[in-house]
């Protein structure tokens, strides 16, 4: 019985404290601010964060491959971004590709394979967007 009484007393104290903070001191709580608050799910947050990272990787790979003027064709397989370039002398060193997130690079003349991993379809989409809309 004592625990119930103590619980009710603390409930009253917390109610009074927070009511004072919110009404008298105008403490901004979610939903009471001037700006609109949007709550994201964990999946939305991860997708947005991953999308930003993949876009940065695609832009870095495009620069490493000599820019958009040097790209002839882009395809992909399960783990590799397959690119045909005009001039393979414009390519960055394999270490540069690895620094930008690639697992490796296969270079056979003008046929280049950037080993990315299972996220290669998303990287290819962003890569093609950069080719169409201009960058690097």
TrEMBL record:
Keyword Translocase included in the entry's annotation: no
Signal peptide from the UniProt entry: none
Q: Which residues cross the membrane?
A: 6-22
Q: Does the keyword Transferase apply?
A: yes
| Compartments it resides in | Cell membrane
Could you tell me which residue ranges the PTS EIIB type-1 domain spans?
Answer: 55-136
Name of the molecule in the record: PTS system, glucose-like IIB component
What is the organism of origin for this protein?
Answer: Selenomonas ruminantium
Lineage start? Bacteria, Bacillati, Bacillota, Negativicutes, Selenomonadales
């Amino acid at each position: 019985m004592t625990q119930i009484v103590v619980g009710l007393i603390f409930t009253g104290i917390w109610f009074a404290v927070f009511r004072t903070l919110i009404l008298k001191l105008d403490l901004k709580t979610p939903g009471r601010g001037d700006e609109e608050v949007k709550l994201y799910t964990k999946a939305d947050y991860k997708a947005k964060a991953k999308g930003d990272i993949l876009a940065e990787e695609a832009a870095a790979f495009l620069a490493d491959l000599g820019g958009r003027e040097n790209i002839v064709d882009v395809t992909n397989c399960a783990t590799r971004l397959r690119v045909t370039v005009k001039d393979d002398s414009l390519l960055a060193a394999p270490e540069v590709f690895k620094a930008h997130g690639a697992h490796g690079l296969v270079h056979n003349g003008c046929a280049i394979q950037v080993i990315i991993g299972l996220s290669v379809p998303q990287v290819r989409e962003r890569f093609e967007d950069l080719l169409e809309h201009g960058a690097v």
